Fold these 3 entries.
Entry 1:
Amino acid sequence: MLLGKVIGSVWATQKEVGMENLKLMIVQPIDCDDNGVGIPVVAVDRIGAGVGEKVIVSRGNPARMLFPQKVVPIDAIIVGIVDSLEASSLEVGEH
């Protein structure tokens, strides 16, 4: 899983079979300090995340497992909207 921030949405009127009625969002992976890390991903959103919200994204086979009745060609899905986040930073060499 990764922490990310929704930075946009994708509109596609033509989608592969199994993707009907699925909302697609662009998510920028972030670190605990809200800094962008890596490249944005397109993720399915079934929980109603909006642009600007921090989200939790599941990737790979676990993302597809949320659709047990059908095969869907997805590799990322938003599984949570972050209400708050608390993390301590470790300096290099600290244990």
Note: The chain is about 5% helix and 35% strand.
Entry 2:
Amino acid sequence: MRRTTRAGRRGSAPTGSRAARRLVASAALAYLANCLWGTAVAVRVIRTRKLRVVHHGLFVVTATLTGVAATTPVWTRDRSTLFLLPALVPLAVAPRTNPRSGAHWRVAVAAAPSYLGALLARR
């Protein structure tokens, strides 16, 4: 029987890393949850008098997962996560915009194409 390796060399990282795919999916899911929570607060479906920290916590999780996922080409050969690099800019700008202005949600939505591209590229 003949053994074949996916990456071509023994001991090298696989081309389509399972960890990278999971990180992309997790970052996209966290982004979606954060956008949904922020939208629910903006349209006053959810009152956040005592739950204001939820949106901030979701943002920290989203930014952390996106940052970690964007670094996976360093330790794997999976390049699909490079689509997440542009998302780091809106994630850096969003906390500095006024949440009651239209700029806040526009900046947040600007990251959506990056997440969509990363999800589509991971196939």
Note: Residues 99 and 105 are 8 Å apart (CA to CA).
Entry 3:
Amino acid sequence: MNGTTLYERPSAYASWRIALPHSAAAVPVARALVRTALAELDHGADSDIAELLTAELVANAVEHTIGDAPIELVVELLPTGCQVEVHDPDPAPPGNLTRPLDTEPDPWLEHGRGLLLIRALSSSCGHRATGSGKAVWFRLPTVPVQRRPA
């Protein structure tokens, strides 16, 4: 279920937290951290999807928040999957993360599909207020071994 009504924080068995610059340079760093975290522990979450959705969250935080305060990436590996959060200083919730748009994104525009991808490809997603702004998150399930690509 996507949404913000219930936010149950499962116990992580491994987690990483890193401050990233408030610039486009944060996106490849965030992707690399997620890829490395999933590979180092031979975790079963789909790393390609995790990287893509992480890039969308970080790019949105950089693009839609004012100032140069760092953003924070939190990656938690859970027994049932992984959770990725991006913390930024803007308390405003992300638009249309947890509910479908009334209209389809314009296929000719560069922007407007990131939250749609997060909603469509994650097992759940949402946002929550923090003491210094908000955290936007998604979860991916563990892929059973027999279904993992070779």
Note: The chain is about 25% helix and 25% strand.
